[in-house]
Specification:
The complex is a heterodimer.
Chain A: E1 5-7, E2 10-14, E3 19-24, E4 32-37, E5 44-49, E6 55-58, E7 61-65, E8 71-76, E9 85-91, E10 97-98, E11 102-107
Parallel strand pairs in A: 2-11
Antiparallel strand pairs in A: 1-3, 3-8, 4-5, 4-9, 6-7, 7-8, 9-10, 9-11
Chain B: E1 4-7, E2 10-13, E3 19-25, E4 31-37, E5 43-50, E6 53-57, E7 64-70, E8 73-78, E9 87-94, E10 105-106, E11 110-114
Parallel strand pairs in B: 2-11
Antiparallel strand pairs in B: 1-3, 3-8, 4-5, 4-9, 5-6, 7-8, 9-10, 9-11
The chains are: A mainly beta, B mainly beta.
């Protein structure tokens, strides 16, 4: 059983569409992080959310931390091919525990 | 300048061999990590070091032995390689230990294939 379940596992959409991916758990977290991993590269931090209900925006990406701090979502507006990658949520301090990941493909 | 670098990028070897992967960070961070990413892209921590001291050993077989000669380097030696060791291994670093809002910076990964 994974502590952080991400959905969907795979998502393939056309350029210009909007999408939302989810990170869910039955545990409460003091913070969550989102990483993006492009093919052949290591994960890169996108954002850290720390307050229940918090919304953070990074250009076309909107991150939300659930009110109960058990889940988080990532919404991408007008997806572009450069958004293609593996999106990972993670929590932890001494060590990062990663979610199961969403593999996103944006079709030009 | 590359922040976290790993060598080699690709490693193909036979079962039973011994191999090493090297990692260096030029960020001045205190803490370094090794992660393993399997074929399903699941990323799991193996070890963490803080100022050359082992902090986390996440039930990794004894065949895996990390070594940190100084806080900028964390190498991973693997003895008697097995088929199941095939994966991508990522090194990472962070400024301090146990600060959950800190960023971890990952290297580009080493793809290990055991034949």
């Amino acid at each position: 059983t994974q502590l952080l379940e991400q959905s969907p596992q795979f998502l393939s959409i056309q350029e210009g569409e909007n999408l939302t991916v989810y990170c869910n758990s039955s545990s409460v977290f003091s913070s969550l992080q989102w990483y993006r991993q492009e093919p052949g590269e290591g994960p890169v931090l996108l954002v850290t959310v720390v307050t229940g209900g918090e919304v953070k925006k990074l250009k076309r990406l909107t991150f939300q931390f659930g009110d109960a701090r058990k889940d988080s979502s990532l919404h991408i507006t007008a997806a572009q091919p450069g958004d293609t990658g593996l999106y990972l949520c993670a929590f932890g301090n001494e060590k990062l525990t990663f979610g199961t990941g969403t593999r996103l493909t944006i079709i030009p | 300048d590359t922040a976290v670098s790993q060598t080699p990028k690709y490693l193909v070897t036979q079962m039973g061999n011994d191999k090493s992967i090297k990692c260096e960070q030029n960020l001045g961070h205190d803490t370094m990590y090794w992660y393993k990413q399997d074929s399903k892209k699941f990323l799991k921590i193996m070890f963490s070091y803080n100022n050359k001291e082992l902090i986390i050993n996440e039930t990794v077989p004894n065949r895996f032995s990390p070594k940190s000669p100084d806080k900028a380097h964390l190498n991973l030696h693997i003895n008697s390689l097995e088929l199941g060791d095939s994966a991508v291994y990522f090194c990472a670093s962070s400024p301090r230990l146990a600060v959950q809002t800190d960023t971890q910076y990952f290297g580009p990964g080493t793809r290990l294939t055991v034949l």
